[in-house]
């Protein structure tokens, strides 16, 4: 793929990926998972959804790669597949890590982690961050539900060039995907529908009074 992986663009390039491109990639990746879960001849659980497995073409269309850990989903009246725990630490759903019980909702959790990475420009696990910020989900969870603090989640390298409404909705979606209760997580088809309206929002945070006030506070404390 001409542009390589999402991981490369988020974490290795000096120029930050624009907010609109991040949302386009999120939608494309969500559509890929939705197809595997709900439209394939037999349901497939991807099991290793992460930024390095999302490849981008020249137009930033996302394509899932490396199906080495993919697993057929449960059939009939079965609710899950039992399997040895595989995947990448920081992305794997907690119930899967604890029990080895794999469902499509395990992929939904991993999508929530990747959506957080796209919003924040932070890796899912980063030991170079201050104490309390090594694990992205644990650091972000308290901020996801708060209207006045969700700005702190957004990649500062974007310098306010992101949609306020889009970031709010993305934070709400990430929170739902990262629910500790797998049954409370949305289907990937619902994630797709939630992301579609976020692609073309123009309410840039850089022109909002609240964001400018927050930036002033950040400068005062730095």
Automatic annotation (TrEMBL):
PROSITE patterns: PROTEIN_KINASE_DOM, PROTEIN_KINASE_ST. Coiled coil: none annotated. GO terms for molecular function: ATP binding; protein kinase activity. InterPro entries: Kinase-like_dom_sf, Plant_Ser_Thr_Prot_Kinase, Prot_kinase_dom, Ser/Thr_kinase_AS. Pfam families: Pkinase. Gene3D superfamilies: Transferase(Phosphotransferase) domain 1. Residues 1-199 form the Protein kinase domain. This is Protein kinase domain-containing protein. It comes from Aegilops tauschii subsp. strangulata.
């Amino acid at each position: 793929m001409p542009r390589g992986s999402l991981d490369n663009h988020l974490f290795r390039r000096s120029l930050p990926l624009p907010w609109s491109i991040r949302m386009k990639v999120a939608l494309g990746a969500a559509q890929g998972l939705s197809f595997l879960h709900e439209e394939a001849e037999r349901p497939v659980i991807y099991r290793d959804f992460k930024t390095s497995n999302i490849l981008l073409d020249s137009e930033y269309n996302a394509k899932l790669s490396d199906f080495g850990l993919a697993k057929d989903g449960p059939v009939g009246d079965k609710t899950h597949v039992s399997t040895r725990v595989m995947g990448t630490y920081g992305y794997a759903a907690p119930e899967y890590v604890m029990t080895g019980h794999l469902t499509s909702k395990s992929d939904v959790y991993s999508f929530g982690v990747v959506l957080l990475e796209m919003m924040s420009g932070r890796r899912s696990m980063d030991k170079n961050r201050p104490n309390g910020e090594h694990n992205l989900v644990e650091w972000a969870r308290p901020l996801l539900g708060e209207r006045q603090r969700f700005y702190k989640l957004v990649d500062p390298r974007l310098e306010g060039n992101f949609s306020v409404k889009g970031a709010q909705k993305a934070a709400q979606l990430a929170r739902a995907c990262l629910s500790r209760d797998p049954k409370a997580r949305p289907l990937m088809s619902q994630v797709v529908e939630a992301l579609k309206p976020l692609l073309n929002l123009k309410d840039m945070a850089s022109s909002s009074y609240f964001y400018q006030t927050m930036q002033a506070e950040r400068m005062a404390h730095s």
